[in-house]
Amino acid sequence: MQKSLRPCNQIGCNNLTRIKYCEQHKKENVNEKKESNNSYDKYIRSKGTNTFYQSSAWKRLRSMAIARDDYLCQSCLQNRTIQRAQVVHHIIEIKDDWSKRLELSNLESLCHSCHNKIHKSSPRA
After folding, report:
1. Is the Cβ–Cβ distance between 68 and 29 less than 8 Å?
2. Which residues, in sequence order, are bridge partners of residue 87?
3. Element (H, E) at 92
4. CA distance 78 to 87
5. Shared domain check, 73 and 35
6. Which DSSP symbol is given to 72?
């Protein structure tokens, strides 16, 4: 059984396809997701920071922090709501104090919404 036909995701294209883009636009949009996800890493985050977030030490510590916080957003808990944590946030950012990057006491589990609010309100360097 095949998927039903639907319009191509390219804006203004009415070609029908069973995948995201029609044959005409598929080649143009192959790297679309990859490029948009990497723009932060490529232009804003330093190479050392990016390497740190890919390290096994960070992944292990991240798991410990989320488990310590019972997989719940700590900011939402303070506001008496329950939300699943998706992000582990450095309270003192690693660009401000590199030595605190692997301290469990410097980490808190947050949902995406709370994490975005924190970074939106903090001044950018």
Report:
1. no
2. 110
3. none
4. 17
5. no
6. B
- What would the two tokens of residue 74 be? 């700590």
Q: Are residues 79 and 105 in the same domain?
A: yes
What residues make up the domain containing 38?
14-44
Residue with tokens 């692997």: 102
Positive or negative, the CA dihedral 104, 108, 111, 112 is negative
pLDDT at res. 78: 95
> Phi/psi of residue 59, each to 5°?
-60, -40
Shared domain for 35 and 60, answered yes or no, is no
Q: Do residue 61 and residue 34 come from a single domain?
A: no
> Per-residue pLDDT tens for 68-114?
999 999 999 999 999 999 999 999 999 899 999 999 999 999 999 99
Ramachandran bin of 70, using left for φ above 0, alpha for ψ from -120 to 50, beta for the remaining angles = left
Residue 56's contacts (CB-CB under 8 Å, 6 or more residues apart) are none
Q: Are residues 61 and 22 in the same domain?
A: no
